[in-house]
Design goal:
about 425 residues, alpha/beta, two-stranded antiparallel ribbon, 18 helices, 11 strands
């Protein structure tokens, strides 16, 4: 069943012609007017009881073994985060206090260099909304004046039983409680209007049947109702909720433009990008090669990106001059990514990576269990990237995917196609 018409009726268009007042970014996602420095981190938070059991040599439990039961409701076939190399029993896992201590180190690095440390993103593992310490974590970031963006599939925001099980309140109450936390933004997953396809993208098939939360799409629609009715939105607009259509895959690329237009016309930023080269994202890339040729896939991506930039200009979200000045973004249409020039990704086992987009020897910079964060940051390619090329502080494109997921000439091809369809 296609849910697009149902959503049209529930959520009226705010921007019929020009997107007056639309903010092309979600607070804390992009570092505005960035100077060389450590402004942001991606961080992992794991429930304390899971951490304690994992670190206890007398216990057989690990983050890997508890992943489905206590960290995540879903079983996404292309999950970039689920990686037993990180969460295996042989690795010690950071406690909440240790992780917050790393945030303190980042704040001190920024303060010593004369700027503010601004934001943290939680990408996983699993769902932070399931963590019993959710609101303690939010409070700790607020106390430090740090914005926290939470990636979520939003199931707890649309299902009362799940919300009560993990947070002791209804789904609407949980949504409203999060909306009252002014330092919190939600990066909300939405990959398809088609119910069967969407459900398949958050579950997996096994010998025992379908693994993962059943009937997710219907729960997602209720979560969207709760979000749109909450204080996350003001007059139908928000800079605290972002729709995440990721990864773009052959199954949903045909509707990805419609997803983008649907939500931006309703006052909500959309971020889209192809698969990560980490976790199960690597498997997604291999499966994709059997479905579609690289040439055809790249052509489809170029066309999608170019059409979105054309729409942005039509709606007044961006100007042609701005697109030329900033360049094409790896996260199409939204503010460019500069995280690989202004931030780091700290995994639960202490590994420090370039960013979540890629996990291999070339993108691992060290471990906070062995060195101070400042030493790792000072020696990192991320810091050097922002110093050597100031434009990387505006748009570093995607060092994780460029030449791999994206062909070498991808951004130039998108720009040329955008200019052609826009009559430039």
């Amino acid at each position: 069943m296609n849910t697009k018409e149902q959503l049209r009726k529930k959520f009226p268009v705010i921007f019929k012609e020009k997107a007056i007042g639309f903010v092309n970014g979600v607070t804390g996602w992009y570092i505005e007017n960035a100077t060389p420095g450590l402004h942001t981190l991606d961080i992992e938070h794991i429930p304390e009881d899971v951490v304690l059991a994992h670190n206890d040599p007398k216990s057989e439990a690990s983050v890997a073994s508890e992943y489905r039961r206590k960290l995540c409701l879903h079983k996404c076939p292309s999950c970039f985060n689920e990686d037993n190399v990180v969460y295996s029993k042989e690795n010690r896992i950071l406690t909440l206090d240790e992780t917050l201590g790393l945030v303190n180190q980042a704040i001190e690095i920024a303060r010593a260099e004369g700027y503010n440390f601004e934001s943290v993103k939680f990408l996983g593992p699993g769902e932070l909304l399931m963590n019993p310490d959710l609101f303690r974590i939010i409070k700790e970031y607020d106390r430090r004046r740090v914005k926290l963006n939470i990636f979520t599939k939003g199931a707890l925001l649309g299902d009362d039983a799940l919300a009560k099980r993990y947070q002791g309140v209804t789904a609407k109450q949980l949504t409203d409680k999060l909306a009252d936390c002014e330092n919190v933004g939600l990066l909300f997953s939405f990959q398809s209007f088609d119910e069967e396809l969407q459900d398949s993208l958050v579950t997996s098939k096994s010998e025992q049947g379908i693994v993962g939360l059943q009937g997710y799409t219907k729960i997602r629609e209720k979560a969207l109702e709760n979000l749109f009715a909450s204080k996350f939105y003001t007059q139908g607009r928000t800079n605290r909720v972002c729709i995440i259509n990721a990864p773009i895959v052959p199954e949903n690329i045909g509707e990805s433009f419609d997803i983008y237009e649907f939500f931006v016309r309703r006052g909500t930023l959309v971020v889209m990008t192809p698969s990560m080269l980490s976790g199960k994202g690597c498997g997604q890339m291999e499966r994709q090669k059997a479905q579609i040729s690289q040439e055809e896939w790249h052509n489809k991506l170029v066309e999608l990106y170019a059409r979105i930039y054309g729409l942005n200009v039509k709606l007044g979200i961006q100007t042609p001059e701005q697109i030329t000045r900033e360049g094409i973004a790896s996260y199409v249409g939204a503010q460019p990514c500069n995280q690989a020039s202004t931030g780091l990704y700290i995994r639960a086992n202490g590994i420090v990576q370039m960013c979540p987009g890629r996990f291999d020897k070339t993108t691992i910079f060290g471990s906070v269990l062995e060195d101070k964060l400042k030493k790792i940051w000072d020696a990192s390619p991320n810091k050097a990237r922002g110093i050597k090329d100031p434009h990387c502080l505006v748009n570093n494109r995607c060092p994780a995917k460029d030449g791999l997921v994206f062909p070498d000439d991808f951004y130039d091809r998108v720009m040329r196609r955008y200019e052609k369809i826009s009559g430039k």
